[in-house]
Design brief:
Length: 153
């Protein structure tokens, strides 16, 4: 699993300057959930908490990265887009940003990949959270689509 997670870090460093600027890194991955960490420093606002835009980026990336890693495990080099995103800010985050995807039933991933095999594109809804003191500080729901294979970058 670490090898696949390392591919996400490589991709972020090479192709996603915003995520790179926030110093996002993989904290944990186990095929059911992905946890990303970003230090507070690059995201700090005037209230000494994480800037809302940075929270959005890390939350959306936890879902995007989950799709990326599951696709790589399935032997797919995906072209991923975020089709829709909704975020709710519930509490300030005065520490490093730690966002985790919420695990899905394996049958949802199976349907996602079957649809892709049949049509060359597919969508899946994922939820992510940023916790603060064990409680949700940020809740994100995103619709992620794979629309074929990644272009050669």
């Amino acid at each position: 699993m670490k090898d696949v997670a390392h591919k996400l870090t490589e991709f972020v460093q090479a192709h996603l300057p915003t995520a790179r600027a926030l110093e996002i890194e993989v904290a944990d991955y186990d095929s059911e959930s992905l946890t990303l960490r970003a230090p507070l420093g690059p995201s700090i606002n005037d209230k000494h908490t994480a800037f809302g835009g940075s929270l959005y980026v890390v939350a959306v990336m936890a879902g995007w990265g989950m799709v990326y890693l599951r696709c790589r495990e399935a032997g797919i080099d995906p072209n991923i887009v975020v089709a829709k995103g909704e975020i709710e800010y519930q509490a300030p985050v005065p520490t490093d940003i730690v966002a985790s995807s919420i695990a899905l039933e394996e049958s949802e991933w199976d349907a996602f990949f079957q649809h892709f095999d049949e049509r060359g594109k597919s969508k899946i809804e994922l939820r992510t959270q940023v916790l603060q003191d064990g409680k949700p500080a940020v809740s994100f729901k995103g619709l992620y689509a794979i629309i074929g294979l990644a272009p050669n970058l």
